[in-house]
Amino acid sequence: YVHEVDAVADALDAGALESPHMTWEDSLGNARVLDLWRREAGVLFDLEKPERCTTPVHGRPLAVRRRRIPQTEVPGVGKPVSRLVMGCDNQPDIRHASVMWDNYFEYGGNTFDTAHIYGGGRMEQLLGTWMRNRGVREDVVVIGKGAHTPANFPDRVGPQLDISLDRLGTDHLDVYFLHRDNPDVPVGEWMDVLNAERSAGRIKAFGGSNWSLARVREANTYAAANGLTPFAAVSNNFSLARMVDPVWAGCIAASDAEWRAWLEAEQMALFPWSSQARGFFTSRFDDIRAASGRGPDAAFGNQPSDAELVRCWFSDDNFERRARAVALAGKRGVAPINVALAYVLNQPFPCFALIGPRVLAETRSSLAALDVALGEDERRWLNLETDSR
Predict the structure, then answer these.
(1) CATH classification of the domain holding 288
(2) What is the pLDDT of residue 66?
(3) What is the reported pLDDT for 25?
(4) For residue 341, what are the domain limits?
(5) Cis omega before residue 20 (within 30°)?
(6) 211 and 102 in a common domain
(7) Are residues 20 and 121 in the same domain?
(8) pTM score, whole prediction
C-alpha cells in the first residue's frame, strides 16, 4: 500500500490524471471493502493499533500549519474556541479519526464536540486516544454532553461525568452541555448541580443542548438570583433551512426570530448542530428530487438518510431558501452549502458551527464558508424575511 501511495503522489506531482482503467473511486471502494472484510475477520495490522498512531500520516509533528479557522472567546472557557467545531460522532476507528482531526487541527481548529452517549462511549475513547497520542490536551477545547433521555436527571450528571472524563483521559471538560432538558425537573436543580461540578473543577463553561428559550431564560434568572454562574452557551439546531421535523426526538431549534433576537441581545454563544442542514444544500437534494417522478411532497429514496432529509428539511419555504442560496452562490463563485454555512457564521451573535465531515473534502468545503461574508440584508433575504437584498 505504501508503494502504491508513493506512486500516486508522484503522479499527482507530475500533473497526471487518474487512470482510465481503474478510477480513484474504484480504488477507494476496493479499499473500503477490504477494511470491512478485515474488521469482520478480526485482522488488525500492528501499525493500526491505537498506541502506534502517534504521528500524522505525513510523518511530521502535529502543528498548526494553515491558520484558516478563526477563534474567539466564550466566557468561562479560558482559551480561544474555534468558530468551526469538529463533531466527534461518526469516526469508525482511530486511524480514520486521526486523519480527520489532524487535518482540522492543522487548519487552526481546536474545538471538539462529543457526548457520553455517542457510540456507546466509543467516540469519547477515540478522542481521548487522539489527544494522548498527540499530546494536545492543553491546546484543545473539549465539549462534552450528558444527562440525555432517559437519564436526564440531575443525579445522573456526576456519575456520567466520571465515566466521560475517564474515557477522555482528562480531569475536566472545557464546555459541558446538558444533552436534553427534563421540564419536570425544577430548573434550579440543574443549575445547582452544574455549579457544583464547576466549583469542583470538572467543568468550566456550561449550558443546555435542546433547551427551550423559556427554560434557558429561567435557568439564568435562577442563577442571577442565587449568586450562581449562568449558562454560557446553548447548543440547539440552527441553520439556514428550517428544521421541519426534529432530527431526533426531543430536539429543539434556535432559528426563529425570538431566539435570534434573544441571542443577539444577550450575546449568548450558540453551538448549532446540523448547521448545514445535513445535506439539504448539497447535490444530494437534487439526487433525491430526481429519484421521484412526483413533486416535493413525495417520500423519495430508500436509504434512511434520504428519508431523514425529506422528513426534516423538505418544505416549500426551505426550497425557496435553497434556491436563494444557489443564486447567491452562483454570483459569489462558491457552492450553495458554503452560503448556507456562512449564514450561520455571519450572525450578529457568537456562533460556533458544529461540522461533521466524513472525508477531508468535506472539511475543505466547510472552510470555504469562512471566506463568504454576508451583510444583514443578505442574511434577511436568504431567510425569506425580505424579497430584496
Answers:
(1) 3.20.20.100
(2) 82
(3) 85
(4) 69-382
(5) no
(6) yes
(7) no
(8) 0.89
